[in-house]
User: Fold rRNA-processing protein UTP23 from Apaloderma vittatum.
Amino acid sequence: RCVLKELESLGKALYGAKLIAQRFQVRNCSHHKDPVSGSACLLSMIEEGNPHHYFIATQDQDLANKVKKKAGVPLLFIIQNTMVLDKPSPKSLAVVQKLQTDELVPEHQKQSIVELKEKEGLAKQEGEKRKKRKRAGGPNPLSCLKKKKKKTQEGQEPSTEKKKRRKRKRNRVKAEAVQPVQNNEEE
Assistant:
């Protein structure tokens, strides 16, 4: 109700947001007679561990930061026309971790386990860390390959110097000299 009152007081600029907010189920809050700001009302509704399991959907960064400090309150926001559920806050993750460990082993059993370990001398010492055991490795398989030999013909030794090739020079005969020769052959 406080959010609707705030939207009404802001006027025509947020009329569309007011219409959208009216479509949702309106929850009663403790400030029915004297409304407070929307963000203060939402924060008061999620007090005491969020008993009604509310989600908070906001673009207000101040409200989002305050919600992240409370455990067990999911946070929604919009990025480029897409609704995004924010990842759990560190506070929420810590509460869940604590609940899981408490459910696994009751507290009195934890204390008895610690006492038994101390009696047997199995208690962990803080300075002691396990070292990772190195395994023996072989040589690099690529370094073990045989080197390739150059192909040589039998009876010939590979020469280090290249043989010099001799270029042939062509003797060109003039066209006048060729014609009388051809004429003589035809006769």
Summary: Strands lie at 56-57, 75-79, 82-85. The radius of gyration is 45 Å.
